[in-house]
Specification:
- The complex is a heterodimer.
- By secondary structure, chain A is an all-alpha fold.
- Chain A has 14 helices and no strands.
- The longest helix of chain A has about 30 residues.
- Chain A has a domain of about 190 residues: ABC transporter involved in vitamin B12 uptake, BtuC (Orthogonal Bundle).
- Chain A is about 85% helix and about 0% strand.
- Chain B is an alpha/beta fold.
- Chain B has 2 domains: about 220 residues, Rossmann fold (3-Layer(aba) Sandwich); about 30 residues.
- Chain B is built from 9 helices and 9 strands.
- A 6-stranded mixed sheet of chain B has the order 5-6-7-3-8-9, sandwiched between helices.
- In chain B, a hairpin with a 2-residue loop joins β1 and β2.
- The longest helix of chain B is centred in the last third of the chain and has 18 residues.
- Chain B starts with a strand and ends with a helix.
- The chains are: A mainly alpha, B alpha/beta.
């Protein structure tokens, strides 16, 4: 099994995948707490359009991803998150950016392979330079998340209390959207635009059911995301099926097990109390 | 402790409608000011003005402290909290601590939380998830979160409305005791005339565009208040109920 680490592409995939998974697991807790799952999904579509644009103009796809998602985050922050939570608004944004992405790809000369790379990810195609970019971005992102942890936690888990305590809630909201946009841009490279959900929200949703504190929710969410990426890479190496499939299948399995466990616990507890 | 808490001539318009009209009053340290009035009179709007969430079109709210900026604690009637989130009462109370860029809690932070939990009788709830607490327990935890930052001013917006009468009395009595002991100025909104008259030092009676501030005796004797809260009607009902009980039990 260890022979897969003899290949550079597998080493890069494991390093980049692990780092991105830790970041997604941690940031995902706040995505779930703030009810931003579908905005995250919108970001991935905006990112798809950005990567297509980058290919069209000859940039690195990550540059286009970052440009489009951060501009998207600032726009959403400016207009207010509530507007973007509306079903109709999300549908319009998803369609427009998907359309733009297809347009840019059709205009570029190398559309075929890039379409599947951006939409479904290509963790095994990550170069050493990509790994370094991902490492630096993740360190910056996790440092900012650590510094703003208390305020973000207050605003995410008790928004009314945070506003009453005089926290700059508008600033927190926009700053978090910016962090999220960078996180999505990174994750798109691993699981692709269509499956960012898998790493950004499922581990946190699982952790919600099996932990008893916010800190543990972050730890468990990050561990689940990392294990998902490792399982995905390993099984993909031996079976040649796509990594994203195994990652999403693993995370989904964990989610259904967590729901089952939660239901079992809530049924069992009253019986225990009455004994 | 605050040096001055003064609401001076404030006007507030919402959607072109005047909600508060030249409202003025002041509150002393350790004083509990009950606020009563019909729905839509601007009671919650007043608290939001004091919190700084709503800016008045005219007038000022001046809260000055002896050594630092004023700290305000706020306890609403209910909060939009996802009850499935794994946040324990202890963790929830810690959110109220002054916000520093340090992600962990210091020994002093832990001591302050512990002391606040003892004061509000929430120590036994420390490890319970907030979603699993009863209405009364939750309100006590919300109160503890507001108190953990050592507020100069405490604002309670119908914070006992969802509680049973016994829990209402217990919580209001606790707030009054803490206000007096820690010299906190409290503004306390309620529709419960008994609770307001029993625990307030003074009362602000607010109707749309009008207000009266006075002692409990002055405001409770107000005829409008009798009509608003149907005090006479309640008295009538209770006397009928007593008659019925007497007949039923053959007394």
């Amino acid at each position: 099994m260890l022979q897969m680490f003899h290949y550079d592409f597998m080493q890069h995939a494991f390093i980049a995948g692990t780092i991105v998974a830790v970041m997604c697991g941690a940031i995902g807790v706040f995505v779930v707490a703030r009810g931003l799952s579908f905005i995250t999904h919108s970001f991935s579509h905006i990112g798809f359009s950005g990567a297509s644009f980058a290919i069209y103009v000859g940039w690195d796809p990550l540059e286009g991803l970052l440009l489009f998602t951060t501009v998207g985050a600032l726009s959403i922050g400016q207009m207010g998150v509530k507007f973007f939570r509306r079903e109709a608004s999300i549908s319009v944004i998803l369609s427009v950016f998907l359309g733009l992405g297809i347009l840019f790809l059709s205009l570029s000369t190398q559309s075929g392979s890039f379409t599947s790379t951006i939409l479904f990810g290509s963790v095994v195609g990550i170069s050493l330079r990509d790994v370094w970019v991902i490492v630096i971005l993740t360190i910056v992102l996790l440092c900012l998340l650590t510094v703003g942890y208390k305020m973000l936690k207050f605003d995410s888990f008790d928004p009314a209390g945070a506003q009453a305590a005089g926290l700059p809630i508008r600033f927190i909201s926009v700053a978090f959207l910016l962090l999220l946009s960078v996180g999505v841009a990174e994750a798109v490279q691993i699981v692709g635009a269509l499956l960012v959900f898998a790493l950004m929200t499922i581990p946190a949703a699982v952790a919600r059911h099996v932990t008893q504190s916010v800190f543990m929710m972050i730890v468990v969410s990050a561990i689940l995301a990392v294990v998902g990426v490792w399982v995905g890479l390993t099984l993909s190496y031996f079976t040649s099926a796509p990594v994203s499939f195994y990652i999403t299948a693993f995370e989904a399995l964990c989610y259904f097990l967590a729901i089952g466990w939660s239901a079992f616990k809530s049924r069992y507890q009253p019986i225990k109390a009455s004994v | 402790m605050i040096k001055k808490f003064c609401v001076d001539q404030i006007d507030v318009y919402i959607n072109g409608e005047k909600i508060l009209d030249h409202l003025s009053f002041s509150v002393q340290p350790g004083e509990m000011l009950g606020i009563i009035g019909p729905n839509g009179a601007g009671k919650s709007t007043l608290l939001k003005v004091i919190l700084g969430v709503i800016k008045p079109q005219h007038g000022t709210v001046e809260i000055t402290n002896e050594d630092h900026g004023p700290v305000i604690g706020y306890v609403p009637q209910s909060r939009a909290i996802d009850e499935e989130m794994p946040i324990q009462a202890w963790d929830f109370i810690s959110l109220g601590l002054p916000h520093r860029l340090r992600p962990w809690l210091t020994k002093r932070d832990r001591a302050v939380i512990k002391e606040t939990m003892e004061l509000t009788d929430t120590s036994h709830l420390a490890k319970k998830p907030i979603g699993k607490l009863s209405g009364g327990e939750k309100q006590r935890v919300f109160l503890a979160q507001a108190l953990v930052r050592h507020p100069d001013v405490l604002l309670l917006d119908e914070s006992t409305a969802n509680l049973d009468p016994k829990a209402q009395e217990e919580m209001t009595s606790l707030v009054r005791e803490l206000c007096v002991k820690q010299q906190i100025s409290a503004l306390f909104i309620s529709h419960d005339v008994h609770l307001i008259s029993e625990y307030s030092h003074r009362i602000l009676y607010l109707t749309r565009g009008h207000y009266t501030v006075g002692s409990v005796e002055e405001i409770i004797g107000n005829a409008d208040l009798d009509v608003l809260y149907q005090l006479q009607h309640i008295n009538d009902i209770s006397s009928v109920a007593t008659d019925v009980d007497t007949m039923r039990y053959g007394g």
